[in-house]
UniProtKB/TrEMBL annotation:
Signal peptide: none annotated. Residues 387-496 form the TGF-beta family profile domain. This is Anti-Mullerian hormone. It comes from Oryzias latipes. One of its GO terms (molecular function) is transforming growth factor beta receptor binding.
Amino acid sequence: MLLVLLFWIGLAGTQQVQHHSSTGTDRRVEPCFVDDAVAALREALQTDGALSNSSLTLFGACRAPDPSSRSTLLVLSEERRRWPDGGLKVRQPAAVFATEERGVVTLTFDLPASSLLEMNLLLLLLAFESPAAAGDLEVTFSSRFLLPHSQSACISEGTLYVLLMGRSSSSSSQHRWTISAEAKSPRMNQNLIDAIIGGKPGGPVGVTPLLLFTGEEGINGSRPAAFGSSGVPVQTSFVCELRRFLEGVLPQDQDKQPLLQLDSLQALPPLPLGLSSSETLLAALINSSAPTIFYFNNWGSKSQGLRGQLILSPALLVELRLRLEQSEMLILDLAEQETVSPRTTARLERLKDLSASQQMEAAESHFCAFLLLKALKTVAHAYDMTRRLRSTRAGPDSPPKGNICGLRSLTVSFEKLLLGPQSANINNCRGVCSFPLINGNNHAILLTSHTESVAEERAPCCVPVAYDPLEVLDWNDEGSFLSIKPDMIARECGCR
């Protein structure tokens, strides 16, 4: 019987002789912490061929040709097909301590009381709070609880996780584990200390262990029910998967932008979304093509018990499913054109499965399906706008339009949101207004004629003349609300 442990390691620069666990405000207390870690492992193993180099780097796997020194990730990848179908069960140990003596870091933590400790496989994943940046670091982890007792990891730039494999702990005397970590090169000792201990004086330990079990269920996580049994609510898993989906499928702007506050924008009165929402409102939202920002900024780890609920009539439910099918076709087309990552379609399938999970009540399932539809329409709007902007620059039967007044891309970034999207393309209008005027009105025509002889007056300017709204969906302790922010996205330009 085997066990694998998962650690979340926070990188910092100050060494502490001893640290203890704490409830600081970092990524480890986010509601998606556990789900993101398990999803990274699941997606790394969902491959028909050899593990990719990016997966090996992500999990600190050593590329040693000697089979005896292969990483746990490689072993799991080869043995995954033998396991029964299902998902991971997750438990989080308590009372984590870290000490350092002569370059050797020792981690001590208590295993939670659980019958899962006697299951077939248990993994310990060491997860960094941010990608390692201290160069190549080869580390040996040793413990009588590991199987084998010594295991290697190769941490480099881009490494977020390290997997260790251990044995089950059915004896009560084995409910406290001690694992030592030592750099194979003494000159890298400080890098190891900074990576695993890190933190400020008196701060939390840099490692959060997670125990991942597979029993009669396997590791590929194809069934959402496993997440309910792991202690993570299915609706939380859905929201976390939705965030990963949006991050992977939406066009990314690489330029750093100043962060803008959504609350500073004018908006129509917020509309409560819940069991009492009218069918007229829900029908309008289902048929709306406006993009949506999921503003779950107050949805923290303490909010995992929140339940979003909607009741859709049979007719609205049919309409919702039809719209979902139509929107899904766009994602499949993008995947065929290799416009999006192959993982996008797998994430979409998982979202569909989670939204239909039998572990949720019908009202919760309807709410998740509604969120999925709004997310897919946001993706559709983004790619449709990309095509429109491309066509304004030059059509197949027309020359480039040069500096004539027209629509141009303009991306703005919002304050850090739990879900996203973190940015939006609001577009802008730029270019010269000259005869023949683009979308010019009578005033612009007369103004252009007048300024040809009277230079003191301003000439017509290229400005937006039509807009699309932006919908903002907020989910907090008071419930879920949708607010419409009008005139947000420039759709057409004209000379005024």
